[in-house]
Design goal:
By secondary structure, the chain is an alpha+beta fold. The chain has three domains: 54 residues, no CATH class; 41 residues, Orthogonal Bundle (Arc Repressor Mutant, subunit A); 74 residues, Lrp/AsnC effector binding domain/regulation of amino acid metabolism (RAM) domain (Alpha-Beta Plaits). The strands form two sheets. The chain has a four-stranded antiparallel sheet with strand order 4-5-3-6, with helices on one face. Strands 1-2 form a two-stranded antiparallel ribbon. Strand 4 and strand 5 form a beta hairpin. Helix 4 packs across helix 5. The chain is elongated, with a radius of gyration of 27 Å.
Length: 203
């Protein structure tokens, strides 16, 4: 019997006679090199020094952020144009160390881009959310991806509950918003749509 990655196999002879050999195969799972990482170490600690614990490969692929990483992300959320000096001061690191952290977060795709905040009250357009309910057998993610490509759609959120999708929209006119809603409602698998106009935005 071949042992796969992360599995340690030992063989113990229990009894023998002239006709057959009875063998008991004792397999114990260990943290394999394929999933080695911070989470592997956590599982080793949970299992104890002598025990072994199978590692969840999805958990092993997650990125562990320390408090400075989280503080840096929070600072960039507040002001994506903050200077490197200001960011370094906020997380109590040198400029070079802060720059290295930003580069690492970008490489890991945790920081995917930088945006700008605007005063919504000064923009002369229509902001709304379109709620979408899908048929029971519809592919929620597939519909969300389709909707997100439509002109006027900022983002499409997949939700749990009675409403399946929440679509963040920005249109020039009420007619444009109506056409967008009709286009979403005509998609295969969409049962119904509703519209919620944004009256004011508060940060």
């Amino acid at each position: 019997m071949a042992a796969g990655p992360g599995v340690r196999m030992t063989t113990k002879v229990v009894a023998t006679n002239s006709r057959n050999v009875v063998r008991s195969i004792i397999g114990s799972f260990s943290c394999g090199a394929k999933y080695a990482g911070p989470y592997s170490q956590l599982h080793r600690q949970d299992a104890g020094e002598t025990g072994f614990f199978p590692v969840d490969p999805k958990a092993a692929n997650r990125h562990v952020l320390d408090r400075r990483d989280r503080a840096l992300i929070a600072a960039l959320r507040r002001n994506a144009r903050a200077s490197l000096v200001a960011l370094a001061r906020e997380i109590d690191l040198s400029r070079s160390a802060t720059h290295d952290r930003i580069s690492r977060l970008e490489e890991l795709k945790i920081l995917r881009g930088y945006t700008v905040r605007v005063d919504e009250e000064l923009i002369d357009d229509i902001r709304a959310f379109i709620t979408v309910t899908l048929d029971d057998d519809s592919d929620q993610k597939a519909v969300a991806v389709q909707v997100s490509q439509f002109s006027g759609v900022q983002r499409a959120f997949c939700l749990a509950g009675e409403i399946d999708l929440l679509v963040d929209c920005r249109c020039d006119t009420a007619q444009d918003l109506g056409r967008l809603r009709d286009r979403i409602g005509a998609l295969e698998g969409v049962r119904s749509c509703g519209t919620r106009l944004v009256l004011a935005t508060h940060d």
